[in-house]
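WP5 quarterly update. Target: Sugar ABC transporter permease. Source organism: Kribbella speibonae. Length: 295 aa.
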Amino acid sequence: MRYWTTRRRDVLTGYLFIAPQLAGVLLFVLIPVGLAIWYSLNKWNVFTGKQVFVGAEHYAALASDPQLPSVLLATVVFSGGVVVLNITLGLLIAVLLNRRFRGATFFRTLFFSPVVVSVVAWTLVWGFLLQDNGGINGLLHAIGVDGPNWLQHGDTAMLSVIVSQVVRSVGVNMVLFLAALQGVPSELYEAARIDGARGRSIFARITLPLISPTVLLTAIITVVGALQSFAQIAVLTGGGPELSTTVLVYYVFQQAFEFNDIGYGSTLALMLLSFVMVLTLLQWQLRRKWVFHEQ
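Structure tokens (predicted):
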């Protein structure tokens, strides 16, 4: 009996196709997470290279860190603002641009174009616009309004980084929602209008249920992206003023690379990873209640 049967050749071919993906997961996910766990259990002097095993000391330090509550609050405010605005505006823009009118392609390109711009370049431009004598305050002054120093006050600094992030990334959700909207059969809309349904009722009872899988996808992508947003904070505010815009991912960077506390920084990174996993799993479980699956 031959060893290389058709079935075994097919199995080997399948493994060869998924080998690059498995290698990527191993090199860029499993090994880094394993190293982060190891570093979190050790105190590492980066100057001497000496590591001392401290067990759960860094995990215990989470409970006594006086800055952590403010960091977590800033993370919730930033992520919540980005997620709500990004999904809402993305869907609204997609609904408006799903109609046929002259210039629709131009506006689709206009809203999507910030996505392809470098994050740092985009944030630097916003930094100039948001300065005390920048472009935004210049426009406000032209209509008789004295604008604040946007990046030097806690509330306006957080609002600024949220708006900067949303304007840059809303194009991704817009494209996903556009694709979903164009996949809704037009016959359903015609039948609903014949039955007397109008505007909001059609959107709530036909459009929204049929695009709910895309809403789930965009929610997961947007939540993960918001929790990982770093460049906007680093370039615009540096986490300030005080801790008003210091989100968890930036706090990880500070502890690990500014204060050279690799062990505690790794512990915070694992906390961030756990938040991402829990929120993703929660959204995935909720799909059974609010995601429509056509039979």
